[in-house]
Design goal:
Number of domains: 2
Number of strands: 24
Oligomer: single chain
Shape: globular
CATH superfamily of the largest domain: Aldehyde Dehydrogenase, Chain A, domain 1
Low-confidence stretches: none
Strand order of the largest sheet: 14-17-18-13-12-20-21
Length: 475
C-alpha cells in the first residue's frame, strides 16, 4: 500500500519516498507500508482545501445531507472490509471492530441530519424597523488529527462534522492504522464529495501539525490524543488564534457504592475495562469500591479478568486482543511493576503473554497507594486498580483528585447518592448505573486537562460553525 494520500480528489504516494511500517500487533510482523506526506503534499492539500471551501460552503444543507447519507450507506456496505482492516492493524477483536464500523456509519448519518438543523435566530430589536438575526456559517478549512485506538470511529467524528457544517478538511489519520481510514475516505469520495473538500494525509505527526496549524488557510484544529501533545498543539494554535477542539486523556473513576448488585456491576466493570485492551480514553481505571462490598467485587472482577480469552483479534472466541504496539506493552509493564514496588497487591495478571505480538495479561491491582504512577498516569491498557473507600466523601475526593476529567462512572441504588455523584464529580461525562458514553447523538468531551469542546451531538456540529450577527433596516 503506497497510494495512501488523498489530496484534491486524487490518490497518490506523495512527493517523497518516506514510508511508515504497518505492523500486525498480534504477530509483531510488518504487513504493509503507508506513504508519508512531505511539505509539498501538505501545501497541495492546503491549496485544495482553501479553493474548494468557496464552493462547498455554498452547497445547501440538504445537498450535504444527501451526500453524507450516501457515504453512510457505503460505509455500511463495506463494514466487514473496514472491520477486518481495524483488527489487522489495531488488534481489537473482530466483534469490537464491527461495532466501530457500525458506529462510523451512525456518526455520518447523525451529522447528515444535524446539518439540516444548523439554525440561526431572530432577535427582537430595540430599534423600530430593524431586523436582527444570527446566521450559522462554516468556520473554514479544518486540520484534524485522530488517534490509532479507534482509527475509524475517531476520524469520522471530525470529517463528518466538518463536512456537515460546510467546512473543508485536511485529516491526518494514524500512520499505524491507515487502511480503514483510506476505506472511509473512499466512501466519501464515491458518495460525491467534491475534490479538495476532504484530504487525507499520513506522516510524522509533529511535522504535519507544525506545517498545517500555522497556515493562514486553516481556521480550526481538532485533535484527539494525549494531554501532553494536546498542550503542544493548543500552544501552537494559540499563537495563530485558531479555534480548537481538544479531546485529551482521562483517568476515569468507577465508583461502586455499597448498595449495588455486586455480580452485575463487577461484570459490567470488567467488560468495560478490558474492551479494546483498555486502550480507550474513557476506559475506567480507578475502581473505588465501598468497603462493604469491596472484597466481593474484587474477587468477582479478578475472576472475570483471569477467564478472558486473549489472542489474535481475528481468531474466533478472542475476547481481548493485543496492545497496539510494543511501546504500550513496555509502558503497562512499567506501571504495574512500579505499583507493586510501592506496596500494591497484584491480584492477577501483571505479565506479558507469548513470544510474539504485543499481548499483556488482563491485570488487577488492589490496595494501590497514591504514590504509585498508575494512580496518577493514565494507563491506557488492560490494568485496573481496585481500591476501597469508606463513605462517599472519600470516593468523590479521590475521583476529583487528578487534573483530568473526561469520563466517570458511578453505581448506586440510592437516588440521593446518584444526585451527589452527578453534581460533584468533575468530569465532562458521567454515566450512572450503566455504560452510556460515546453515542453519535450525545456530546463527547472533557473538562480540566482533558480538553475542551465536544464531538457528537448538536455540540459536535456547533464546533465547526461561526455565528454571524446581522442588523438590517430596509431593503
Amino acid at each position: 500500500m503506497t497510494a495512501s494520500l488523498f489530496i484534491d480528489g486524487a490518490w497518490s504516494a506523495g512527493s517523497g519516498t518516506r514510508r511508515g511500517k504497518i505492523v500486525n500487533p498480534a504477530t509483531g510482523q510488518q504487513i504493509s507500508e503507508v506513504a508519508f506526506a512531505e511539505a509539498a503534499d501538505l501545501d497541495r492539500a492546503l491549496a485544495a482545501a482553501e479553493r474548494s471551501f468557496a464552493g462547498w460552503r455554498r452547497t445547501t444543507a440538504y445537498e450535504r445531507y444527501q451526500i453524507l447519507t450516501r457515504a453512510a450507506g457505503l460505509v455500511r456496505e463495506r463494514a466487514e472490509t473496514i472491520a477486518t482492516a481495524i483488527t489487522r492493524e489495531q488488534g481489537k477483536p473482530l466483534a469490537e471492530a464491527r461495532m466501530e464500523a457500525g458506529a462510523t456509519a451512525d456518526f455520518i448519518d447523525w451529522y447528515a441530519q444535524e446539518a439540516r438543523r444548523a439554525y440561526g435566530r431572530v432577535i427582537p430589536s430595540r430599534i423600530s424597523g430593524a431586523r436582527q438575526m444570527t446566521i450559522a456559517e462554516p468556520v473554514g478549512p479544518v486540520a484534524a488529527f485522530s488517534p490509532w485506538n479507534f482509527p475509524c470511529g475517531q476520524l469520522v467524528r471530525k470529517i463528518a462534522a466538518a463536512l456537515a457544517a460546510g467546512c473543508t478538511i485536511i485529516a491526518k489519520a494514524p500512520e499505524e492504522t491507515p487502511s480503514c481510514a483510506i476505506e472511509l475516505v473512499k466512501c466519501f469520495e464515491e458518495a460525491g464529495v467534491p475534490a479538495g473538500v476532504v484530504n487525507l494525509v499520513f506522516g510524522v505527526p509533529a511535522e504535519i501539525s507544525g506545517h498545517l496549524i500555522p497556515s493562514p488557510v486553516i481556521r480550526k484544529i481538532s485533535f484527539t490524543g494525549s494531554v501532553a501533545v494536546g498542550r503542544q498543539l493548543a500552544a501552537l494554535a494559540g499563537q495563530h488564534l485558531k479555534r480548537t477542539t481538544l479531546e485529551l486523556g482521562g483517568h476515569a473513576p468507577f465508583i461502586v457504592c455499597g448498595d449495588v448488585d455486586v455480580a452485575a456491576v463487577s461484570a459490567l466493570g470488567a467488560g468495560t475495562k478490558f474492551r479494546n485492551a483498555g486502550q480507550i480514553c474513557t476506559s475506567p481505571t480507578r475502581y473505588l469500591v465501598d468497603d462493604a462490598v469491596h472484597d466481593d467485587f474484587l474477587a468477582r472482577f479478578a475472576a472475570i479478568a483471569e477467564g478472558l480469552s486473549v489472542g489474535d483479534g481475528a481468531a474466533a472466541g478472542t475476547q481481548m486482543g493485543p496492545l497496539a504496539h510494543s511501546r504500550r506493552v513496555d509502558a503497562i509493564d512499567g506501571l504495574v511493576q512500579d505499583a507493586v514496588e510501592k506496596g500494591a497487591r497484584l491480584v492477577t495478571g501483571g505479565r506479558r503473554i507469548g513470544n510474539q505480538g504485543y499481548f499483556y495479561a488482563p491485570t488487577v491491582l488492589a490496595d494501590v497507594p497514591l504514590a504509585a504512577r498508575v494512580m496518577n498516569e493514565e494507563p491506557f491498557g488492560p490494568v485496573a486498580v481496585v481500591n476501597r473507600f469508606d463513605g462517599l466523601d472519600a470516593a468523590l475526593s479521590e475521583a476529583n483528585r487528578l487534573p483530568v476529567g473526561l469520563g466517570a462512572y458511578a453505581f448506586t441504588r440510592s437516588s440521593a447518592n446518584a444526585a451527589r455523584l452527578v453534581d460533584e464529580i468533575e468530569s465532562g461525562m458521567v454515566s450512572v448505573n450503566h455504560f452510556g458514553l460515546a453515542a453519535s447523538e450525545t456530546p463527547f468531551g472533557g473538562v480540566k486537562d482533558s480538553g475542551h469542546g465536544s464531538e457528537g451531538g448538536s455540540e459536535g456540529l456547533e464546533a465547526y460553525l461561526a455565528h454571524k450577527f446581522v442588523s438590517q433596516i430596509g431593503a
